Structures are given as C-alpha cells and as structure tokens.
Amino acid sequence: MRRSLLAVFFLSGFAALLYQVAWQRMLVFYTSSDTVSISLIVTAFMCGLGLGYLCGGHLADRQGHRRNLLTFVIAETGILLFAVSSKFVLYDLLYHHGPQPEDSQAVLYAMVFGVLLLPTFLMGLSLPLLAKGAIMADMKDQGRFIGRLYFTNTLGAAVGALDTGVVLVRIMGYQHVLWVGVAMNAVCVLATLLMVSGSSEGAVDVGKPRPAAEPLPWNISMKVWGIQYALSGFAALSLELIWFRVLETLIKSVSLTFSILLAIYLGSLAMGSLAGERWAARMDRARRGSLFLGVQAVLYAYVGASFLLLLWAVGSLDALAFLKTYFRSYEPDLTPGIIIPTYGLIPLFLMFIPTFIMGVSFSTSQLIIQDDPAFVGRRLGWLQFINIAGSALGAWWVTWVGFEFLGTATLIRILTLLAIIYLLVAWQRGHLGPVVLAAGAGSVLLVAVLFPGNTDFWRRMSGMDDPATFFHDENASGLSVIKRYERHGSMAGLVFSNGLGQSVIPYKLDAVHTKLGALPVLLHPSPERVAVIGLGSSGTLHGTAARLETRELVCFEIMSNQAEVLMKYAEKVEDRSIMSTMNDPRLSLVLHDGRYRLTTDTTRYDVIEADALRPNSAFSGNIYSKEYYQLLLSRLRPGGFAATWCPTPRVARTAAEVFPYAVLIDDLLMIGSNSPLELDLERTMRTLATAHVQHHFKSAGIDIDTLVVPALRKIKDIDEFGSEGGADINTDLFPRDEFVLPYTWSMLRGKLLGQDEH
Description:
Blueprint: H1 2-31, H2 35-62, H3 65-97, H4 105-131, H5 139-198, H6 220-251, H7 257-281, H8 285-316, H9 321-328, H10 336-369, H11 376-406, H12 408-428, H13 434-450, H14 454-461, E1 470-475, E2 478-487, E3 490-497, E4 500-505, H15 511-523, E5 529-533, H16 539-544, E6 552-556, H17 562-573, H18 576-582, E7 587-590, H19 594-600, E8 605-610, H20 626-634, E9 636-645, H21 649-658, E10 661-665, E11 669-673, H22 681-688, H23 691-698, H24 704-712, E12 715-717, H25 718-722, H26 745-752
Parallel strand pairs: 5-6, 5-8, 6-7, 8-9
Antiparallel strand pairs: 1-2, 2-3, 3-4, 9-11, 10-11, 10-12
C-alpha cells in the first residue's frame, strides 16, 4: 500500500508542476511577463501551498488513516475541477475582465493569490494527509515514509516540469496540456479510492474523526527547527532565483531553458531526499544532528566556491576557452557542443550539490523531529508552512532588495557566509572540534574575500576582459549589458538583455532595426502618434523618429534599466545619435511590458512597431500571437499601421488571419492595417528626400536611400509568405514558433555521433 501511495504522489507532483507552468503562462497576460510579475506569481502559488500544509497537518492528526486518504481524494478532486475550469478563470475571465491593477503590486498580488488559493491550498494538504495515510511500525518508519513521499512527489514535479516545457506544450499548447494533469489527478483519485476500499483494517483504520490528544508543544526544539526551516526556505528560493538569473545569462536563454533548469533543480532535490532518508535511517539521533549541521555548512560554502571556481576555470583553462567565447558572443548557439555544457554540465555543477543537500536535510530533519505519532501531521504541516513563508520572503527580498540594490555577487557572498553559522552551531553542540571550526570558517571567509564585486562578476560571466568595454546594470527587472568589441571589422556595442543579444550600435551597423523603424513611418501619410514596443539599442526607435509630422513618440521597455545603460554607453563613446534619440522631446519612455500597457491603455496610434524578438525566445509568443495582433488592430487609428518583424511563415499566417489588409516588405517587415493599404511609393520617395528625413539619418551615419529604396521594390501580399509550410497559426495559449526545437531527434543524434544530418 505504501508503494501505491508513493506512485500516486508521483503523479500528483507531476500534475502540480504541469499546472504551475500552464497557469503561470496564462497569468502573465494579466500581470505582464516581467521578472517582478513572475516572482509575484510564484510566491502567490507558494503561499497557497503553505496554508494547505498548515491546515493539512491539523486535519491529519485529528483523523484516522482512512479519513486522511479520503480527504486526499477530496483535495485531488478539487484540484481536478479547478484545472478543468482554469483556462476560463485565469485567461478568459481574469485577463479579459479582471480589475485593472494600475501599477499596484498589492492589487496584482491579491488577485493572483485569490485565484490560485483554492488549488494551491488543496495541493498543500496532500503531504501531511498521506504522511498519516497508513499505519507505521514506529516513528523511525514514519520519518522514512515522509522522506520517501517527499522524494516521489518532488521527482514527479521534476519530470512534470521537463516534460511539460519541452514536450507537451510544444505538441498540445497550454490549454490542452491541462487535460494531461486532469487525467493524472483522476488516476490519483481512483487509485486512492481502490486502496481505501480494498485495504484491511490492519493497514488502514476505520476510526471516526478524533480530536488531537493535546496541543502541539512549541518547546525549544520546535522553535529551533522553526527558525531552521524558515532560513532554509529563504535560502532555497534566494538561490533558485540567483542560479536562474546567472544561468539564463550564460545560456542565452530560449523558451525551453526554464523548464530544463527547473527539472535539474527539482530532480537534484528529489535525489537528495532519497539519499538522506537512507543515510539518516542508519544513524542514531546524535549522528543525524551531526549530519544535518555538516551538510548545511557544506551547502552554503559550496555555493560561493562553485561560482568562484567557474569564473576561474572559464577565464583561465584553455580547454574551456570556447565557453568564454560563447558567453561573450551575440547569438544563442544550440549545437550539441554548446548545449551539453550550458544546459547540462554547468547547471549541474552549480546546482546539484546544494539542492541535493537540501533534499538530504529534509529527510534527515523528519527522522529527528518525528518522535510522537500524535503530532506527526502538525509538526510536518507547521514546519512546511514556516519553510514556505521563508521561501516567499526570500523571493520578495531577492527580487526587490537583493537584485535591485545589492547585486547577484553580493547576494552569493552573503549566502556563502551562512556556512559559518552552521559551523558554529555544530561546534557548540560538540559535533566538531575547534581546529575543524577554524579551518572551515577560514575557508568560507577566504571564498567571500576572493569573490568579485558585482561589476567584475558580470563582466567575467559575460566573457569580457577589459572593464572599459563593459557596461551593465542589474535590478529587479533583469540584467542589461552592452559589450564593446570589434565585430565584422568595426567597433560595435552589442546590446544584451539577460544574456541574449538584442541589437547593435552605432545604428549604421544594424540595418535591420533601422528598416523596421523607418519603413512604417515613411510609408504612412501622417504618423502623428507612434508607439514602439522595445527599446534595445534604440535603433528601431531612432528609425521611427524620422518624420517631422510625428508629434508623440511612446516607447515601451520591459527592462527598466535599459535606458540607463544605453545612456552610460553613449556618454562614454560619445554617440550623439543615441543621446539625441533618448532626449527627443517627443519621446515618452514607459518602463513596462508593452503588450500589458496596450491592454490597459486604450490610446490609439497611427503606427505601432514591435522591435524584433527571436521567435524561440521566452514569451516571444506574446507578440506573435493572433490575440496580440487583434490587440494591435484595436489600438490603431483609422488607416493606422501595425508593424512587426516577420521571422517565420507562421507569423505571417497569424497576421493575415487578423488584419484585413497586410503586406510583407523586403521579406522582413509585416505591416497590417484596418484600412486598405494604398501604399503611395511616389509620396514615400518625396518624404524620403525631404531635408529633415535625410538629416535625421545622415547625422547617424546611415545612408537611408540605400536601405529603403530597394526594400520598397519588394512589397508583396503577406499570404505569399504565409502559405509556406502549413496552415497553423500562433495563439496566446499555443505559441508554436516559441517551442520549435532546433533539431529533430534524428538530426541531434547524427550531430552527436558526428554524422551528416541528412
């Protein structure tokens, strides 16, 4: 029966992570897709879990084994029913008809927490209920069973994160993938009911609900463990956010990155919980305490040491020179030679040992604290609740204080120093001698002293040697970087957001962004009000600012530090074109998700231009979907232009389905409109020849005639491009282009074996 419960809890964990991935994607349309909003969604999810743990612990101690299993059945059924209706609740209702938060994080959090409370609360009930779902031989048996429940559930979550993000969403989309979770919940319900109905009274009692024998004693031991669980939760979420920020920068993140990294994190945690349950079961209570304190010290010391070693190795070892070159480079590389170290070896090197130790710590602590069957549920529930509270606090602190004011390097140094606290406690309790204490504390202090400052940390992580060629700023919204080096024979500034190359400066070196900005405003008869989604290098913005008729220029930028880094670079290299663009009196810079702002603000524009974004970037589907184009159409003035890069035939098909009139220019730019597109090329040529337009581009070193005139000869109906390769389109909940894999499995196998892909 215990094996059956473990199998059920595996499926429950798989479904839970599947739902988290899908629900998070649906919620970003309401909250926006910036880093702060994602953190908000995650913490709302976790707070519901924490309340469920707390309530589940009280229920578990008051009920018999059979009733605990039946309550688990009710919880899984509730999750199932919410999942069935979740697309309607989270996307159709909240996104389209929910109250507008008007930049209030408190309102956003309250709404997200409110809609997620029921399912996450029910998920949190599960562990305490199943922990007391079968009769145990003794408390050691009980502690081991809790560790194994945690192992199977976390392993299921790891597999769920990987399978959902890499396979299921790519095949089914976010809406239909929910039914996979529903099916798993249904299996959990039926299997548990069969266990209850077929069990003997020796395995599952039939007892009526009974009050706990006495209140949970909050003695000194429970208080100490409460502090430890809060601290470990705080550190775990802090580390998760730090690792993910660093790794997505090194990897040059695409849409699949998050699921792969989350699977590594959860899988390592699961393996550690299994190992801890087995190791600690062979020890007496004193040795378990020694194990717990020892691994905690190793955990935090390893965090700083691993980053320090990675920085040294990539910068000094010839065998890893290719990684330094990649970290410095502009484009993501999805060949096996880069994928294996960046998506596998480096994440494992940084995350495996610390998260493995987190799992060991959970199982070990349960074998220490579970010494009375009357308090099993409440001890588990209370401590998990405290852990979740610490996790939520860690997420908020790292996002709004750590990244904003301290920087990643300082955060790593602080977490590394926590090792000294555990060494001191271990010494005070007699688990280690003064010599070991001194050696351990000295090693930790040495790592902290040697650890670079935030600027040097990110410079070295970015593959740059010369501090004078590296410009950066880090805050809650992300890491904005400009690297200056020779590229294609010219000195260039390459603009990066969270490690991913976005554009190039000076403007004359980036013809694509200039054409994306210039063509729509040159073709429009009178672009008085223009909006640009995405600042980047400001190259697209510069192109849209060419017309004297433009009275209002609005630029939306999700990275709140992008403009600051851009101006810092412009002042250093004396790029007056950037300064002029950023100081244009017509410009209003709105530091927010552009799609979110267009949704909440009904202002209409003559031209709306979306800066280029790779179709496989995370959340790129939000600006290549049918619903996004419908939003643009609703925000156009009569005769207005919606313009966007058109990187794939599917994007063209999607636009053609929404815009009644649409063309493709130069196989590069899609323009859609609510009125017939009577593109007057003679008028456009006269506009192009005006002194104002010519001066605007010549002052930036751009020969605009050479760029624009050939492009104007390549205007065709968008259906000609969109007819290539099928009939499907991108939607908000099925962004197909975002999840296109770089290789088929046979191609990848051929590359790994050194064979030709054909």
